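Annex B. Sample input.
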Amino acid sequence: MITHHVRTRRSSEDFPQSEHLAQKIAEVAADPVAVPDETTEMVINRIIDNAAVSAASVIRRPVTTARQQALAHPSTPGASVFGVGGTYSPEWAAWANGVAVRELDFHDTFLAAEYSHPGDNIPPLVAVAQHLGIGGADLIRGLATAYEIQIDLVRGICLHEHKIDHVAHLGPSVAAGLGTMLGLDEETIYQAVGQALHLTTATRQSRKGLISSWKAYAPAHAGKIGIEAVDRAMRGEGAPAPIWEGEDGVIAWLLGGPGATYDVALPAPGEPKRAILDSYTKEHSAEYQSQAPIDLARRMRERISDVDDIESIVLHTSHHTHVVIGTGSGDPQKFDPTASRETLDHSVMYIFAVALQDGTWHHEASYAPERANRPDTIELWRKISTVEDPEWTRRYHSTDPAEKAFGARAVITLGNGEVITDELAVADAHPLGARPFARKQYEAKFATMADGVVEPEEQQRFLDIATSLAELGAGELGALNVAVRPTVLDKAPTTGKGIF
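Annex B, continued. Sample output.
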């Protein structure tokens, strides 16, 4: 890896394009290096994972709305929309499929200086590949790049500190991944990366206070913008430059300011793209920093004879967990039983209470209004608080995979004064956890989420296609779509009439 020092430059400075971060990204994307077998294996796993969570979310209202918008844009050859037949304009197919993937907060994650869901790169790249008749091997190459660029940016540049939403790293990664997949030249990729970043910076209010359905739409929007940016760049259109380093650019006015320097490490020429192997998926449908606390609550439940006897629970955890999904956020909505599902899945207090009471977690039942409004749950929920522990913060930001952790230490005080303490560093499904996810677990997750939604024969057909992705030829990627039972789609909510 080569570390690039990225800082603001005055317009009057001699700062050639060869030194721009967007150019360095373009060079990585254009590098024809082979994809390692283990990277290919993980790309396939994540395609299966995305299909699993899409099946689980297919008739939720935001997903239904996005699908209806996409269906209003038929196209030939076009791309597939999850669950239905026909082909549609690729940017709109990516939009619909991106919302389906993101709706339940249930797919892969990578956390470092920033946080991310790199599986959000999959819908836009698959849609373009289907539309242009790209083969499976090139799709894999593109996704290896997209994961690499997003994860490398997440390692080096913190966005949330400056209240910028994490999808600002996704627009450039989609553009770079498409550049690799389509075999574009460095100049075209450079312009596309700049456009994509310029158009996907937004505030993180979408993840603050009362969280709305836009949380699911934001990554899909970034993917759609990434496709459109590449299309314009391929036609010869340019981008604001230097986009990160410019005097009026992203660093100067949206991030750390003119005096800030960011270190972004990118693969050297000829170095394989392996960043996807450092990311991890979810066993539970909740914000990633809730994964270990859910498993911890399930484990601690066995040591508590009567949950109603709990006096207080304090979760000692990282700064990021404390201020984003804990009481350090200052969001009263995180204790509101009438809050949106999106808000509840960003409340570790709610999540820990329900997991402790139920000993399990379900992507629908655990968030149901009747579940959130149970009086005993509300009572326990409001006894839970979080505090930052510097050691958990240090481990959150550690670059050593064996030390990096997103867990917590729970201190439970009972009514009689007894104190029960336990901690868990990583979720059970994490690569270093008690039950790491491999192909078997990804396929099992798909089977569970698709049960009753997708016919068993269709489930197996999809798994067979996904497993053989590297061998699929030009024009064969339409088979990556999954057909949903019509009787299931018939239950989708009726959405209002829009423009399209």
